[in-house]
Each structure stands twice: as C-alpha cells, then as structure tokens.
Specification:
By secondary structure, the chain is of the alpha+beta class. The protein has helices at residues 54-64, 97-100, 108-127, 155-160, 167-184, 209-212, 218-228, 242-248, 298-327, 332-336; strands at 11-12, 16-25, 28-35, 40-47, 75-81, 84-90, 94-96, 140-143, 148-150, 201-202, 205-206, 348-350, 354-358, 384-385, 401-413, 415-420, 426-433, 442-450, 453-456, 462-473, 476-477, 480-481, 484-492. It has ten helices and 23 strands. Helix 3 (108-127) packs antiparallel against helix 5 (167-184), helix 3 (108-127) runs antiparallel to helix 8 (242-248) and helix 5 (167-184) runs antiparallel to helix 7 (218-228). This is Protein kinase family protein.
Length: 496
C-alpha cells in the first residue's frame, strides 16, 4: 500500500481504521482512527512518500512507547514497511492550556500544578534520554478524565526536525514558558502562540508575571524567572532541567482543582436512573404525593390536656412570686450595694510588621521565607508552608520549624488564630518572646492533631515582640509531610 492511497476507511495493520483527517503539515497527516480490536479511538500519523524524516519519526515513536509515565501520550504502534509508515498513539480528549486560557489567566496555583505535573512527566522522559523540544500551550492538556497529558514527547521533535545541544535546558525553558502563559495569559516569545498574545516588554526584556498580572505569588514569579527569564533572575540560579523545575514546584498544593466542564445535558425524566462514570451509583427522581391529614389519637388528646394544665400552673406560680417581690421591695442600701457591670473591651487585631519562615536549626536558618507574607496577607488562597519531609517528625532532623512574626514592638497576646491545612496530624506550639532566638521564645500554648482553623490561647499573660507558630509534628501531604499556614491573625487584649 502506498501513501498516495491513504484515505478515510483505510485499515492499517489489519486493525486501525482511518476515519477523520485532523490536520496536515509538510507531508505528515494526523488522523482520528478506530482500533477495531479494542474498539477505541486512536491517533494515527501517516506520511507522504517524499516526507524526509520518516525513519527518525518511527524510531522516536518506538523509543517513546517504552515510557511508563501516564502523563505522557502512549504510543501503541509504529511501523515503516511496504512503502507506508505510520505511528499510532493515544487519542487524548480534553482542554489544552490554550483552551483553558481563553477566558484569561488561570489561578496561580492551578497553573503551577499543571506545569508541575508536566515537569515531573518530562523528567521521567529525560531519564530515558527522550525530550520534547517544542512545548507549546497546545501540547499540555487537562483531560476529560481529570488528568494531565503532555502530547508528543520525542515524536513532535522528530516531525519538525528539531535538534539542540542542550535538550534539558530547552525543555526547562519550555516549561517556564507554559508557566508564564498560565499565570499571565501571554506567551513569552516574539510572536503569538496558541492564540495567546505576546508577553509585554520593558527595557527590551519580557515583564515578569507579577508585572503583568496582579496576585501572582512571589515564589511562582521567581520560579518562572529562573526557568525562562534570565535577565530577571537576580541572585537566583537558573532552572536548567525538567527535574529542577519539578523540584521547584514540588511544594505546590495538590490535587489539581481545575474542573473539566462537559456540555450541558438535558434533565433526566422522572424516575429515570443515571449512572456516573466510574461510580456504581444511581440517582432517581420521585414525585411526592400530599399525605392526608392525620386525626389526633385519644392518647394525643390526653397529653395535650396535661401540657395545658402544666402551663396554667406555671403561670400562676410566676404571678404569685412577682406579687411578693412587688409587695416587699429590697431596701435602698441593698439595691445600692450591687456593683455596676464592668465594661469588657473586645480584643484588637494587631498586624505584624514582618513575617519569615523560621528554621533556626537548618543550614540557612530559614524555611521558605519568600512565602511568609502569603500567610499574613488576609487572602485565603495564599499560604506559607514548610519544606517536604520524609516523616511526620521532620525527618528526625530537627525538633521543629515555623512561621515567625515580628510585631514591631512588645505586644500583649490574647489569641493567635492560625488557619492550617485540612490534613490532620499536625502538632503546633505558640511561642512568644522579645528576641527571635529560639531559646528566648517561651511556649505559651500547644495543640495536638491540629487542622483547619486553630485558636492558640496563652495559658497565662504573654507579652513579646516576636510570635512564633512552631510545628513539632507535620501532617501527611501528597506522599510527604509538611506544615501549611493559610492565614494568621494575632489578637491583643483590648482596653476598657
């Protein structure tokens, strides 16, 4: 069979039936086909007789078929014989990053998780000496099955004839561009890409994500600059491999919260049964009928009569007691001896002048200090967190880590309300003192198995310039252990 005879209805390898021509580019054609043996859709590439890189594409596809990460497109078959070459791979349905950005930038954490998943998958490919080299918004897909897919590892580069001296750096920069796009809705390139406008520039350089879109967390801005904006890295080192990008994004909270929205379906008919995909559940609709009014039974009438008699007796006793008090008023001296009620002032919120991640026993004395302000900005979707550890006791490396607040001056502490992650198992302490040294901070409150909103109230009066929320035990988080603080509010006793 020659390539010139390839048309809808053609069967390859006696099982893959070509159905719809999806796209054509420089002698390569992408088809939607049906695997007739497994009764599922597949993607098939075929090639014109004069396509110059057939051998390279088939070789790359066979190598990619050995990859096991489910976030990478699976290759099912690749052949070059009888004058016809083809590559059969997974048919992926969902929304590409371009589709997701049609309405504007994503929420920062959502963009970060998408790219983090892609970075981990590409790190797996690089371990097998396979690369992508042409990461674009259309190559990153949020599937209808609520998973991330990276399309075209190895195969796309062969199709386009792309080579590079440093594939790890090229893919790290590609991931940085995808993160930039997710955070800003712009593409950091000279031209538009995937329907996204080119990123704005300042003094001949691309603006950083925070300069383009308000609300981008500082740490994501820094990661993007380290991956793809060398002129904005400042003192930070470059991220030069997908593995380094994955490591930088490893602390992003998961699971992914982007939801695929299917087209609306007509409402079910009454009493119909609907079955959710993958779940053995049923939903039925019932029409309720009005019930006839119940007639009171003899027992009910007796109980009602008894209740009425009790009410009448209670009213009589109350009236008699009131009459006695009115007839025998208390002497003026007794009335005057009652002390006036004291005025109790409400505790006042005191904002810290500074916050930092605190790891006095670590190598640099800090624990994600770049995220500390996110725990005191009053926004529920930003947070500070510890490093990931291998067990709940901080890898048995240290007694604790925490978030240190500098109140600016000695402050009386009434309560400290900290919003932690919903994962249970954290043990936290509240420490207060006049010096940021751990030995100078006194423990004034403790709580075990803490999660969600936690109120730490000092056991006795506490005053100090520094307030420390100190984790001594961490909850589980995505296979690791880390502490997370979404918000901290410090209350000081009010004055009457």
């Amino acid at each position: 069979m020659s390539a010139s005879t390839v048309e809808p209805g053609t069967r390859l390898a006696q099982r893959f039936r070509l159905e719809d021509r999806v796209s054509e580019s420089e002698g390569a054609t992408l088809w939607k086909a049906i695997d007739e043996i497994l009764a599922r859709p597949v993607a098939v590439h075929t090639f014109d007789p004069d396509f110059p890189r057939v051998t390279e594409v088939v070789t790359a596809a066979r190598a990619a078929s050995r990859l096991t990460d489910p976030r990478l497109t699976q290759v099912f078959d690749a052949a070059e014989d009888d004058g016809l070459a083809y590559v059969v791979s997974e048919w992926v349905t969902g929304e590409s990053l371009s589709d997701l950005l049609a309405g504007g930038p994503l929420e920062p954490e959502r963009a970060a998780v998408l790219v983090a998943e892609a970075a981990e998958a590409l790190a797996h490919a690089h371990e097998h000496n396979l690369h992508h080299l042409c990461l674009r918004p259309g190559k990153l897909v949020w599937t209808t099955g609520n998973t991330v897919k990276v399309l075209g590892v190895a195969v796309d580069a062969a199709l386009e004839g792309l080579t590079t001296d440093d594939p790890a750096l090229d893919d790290a920069e590609g991931l940085g561009r995808l993160l930039y796009a997710g955070l800003t809705g712009h593409w950091p390139g000279d031209e538009e890409e995937g329907g996204l406008p080119a990123a704005p520039m300042s003094d001949g350089h691309f603006c950083t994500p925070r300069q383009v879109t308000a609300g981008v967390p500082g740490y994501l801005d820094t990661i993007t600059c380290r991956a793809v904006l060398p002129e904005s890295r400042k003192s930070h080192s470059a991220l030069s491999t997908p593995g380094q990008v994955a490591e930088a994004l490893a602390d992003v909270a998961r699971p992914l919260t982007i939801q695929y929205t299917p087209p609306p379906s007509p409402p079910p008919a009454p009493a119909a049964v609907s079955r959710s995909e993958g779940l053995d559940t049923q939903q039925r609709t019932y029409v309720s009928q009005p019930l006839p009014p119940k007639q009171p039974s003899t027992l009910n009438r007796v109980l009602m009569t008894f209740v009425v008699l009790l009410v009448i007796a209670a009213v009589g006793v109350g009236a008699w007691t009131l009459g006695r008090k009115l007839g025998n008023p208390a002497p003026p001296e007794a009335a005057q001896s009652q002390p006036p009620p004291s005025a109790t002032a409400e505790p006042q919120i005191v904002k810290p002048s500074n916050a930092t991640g605190f790891d006095p026993l670590g190598d640099d004395g800090a624990e994600h200090p770049e995220l500390a302000d996110d725990a005191v900005d009053g926004k529920p979707d930003t947070f500070w967190h510890t490093t990931n550890y291998n067990n709940a006791t901080l890898g048995n490396l240290k007694p604790g880590v925490g978030l240190l607040l500098d109140m600016g001056k000695p402050t009386k502490i009434a309560d400290v309300i900290a919003t932690l992650s919903s994962a249970s198992g954290a043990s936290v302490e509240l420490k207060v003192g006049d010096s940021p040294d751990l030995s100078s901070l006194k423990t004034v409150a403790k709580q075990k198995d803490a999660s969600g909103k936690v109120t730490l109230t000092p056991d006795e009066a506490a005053t100090g310039q520094y307030v420390l929320i100190w984790f001594t035990r961490l909850p589980a988080d995505a296979g690791k252990f880390r502490g997370t603080i979404y918000d901290v509010v410090v209350y000081s006793p009010g004055t009457a």
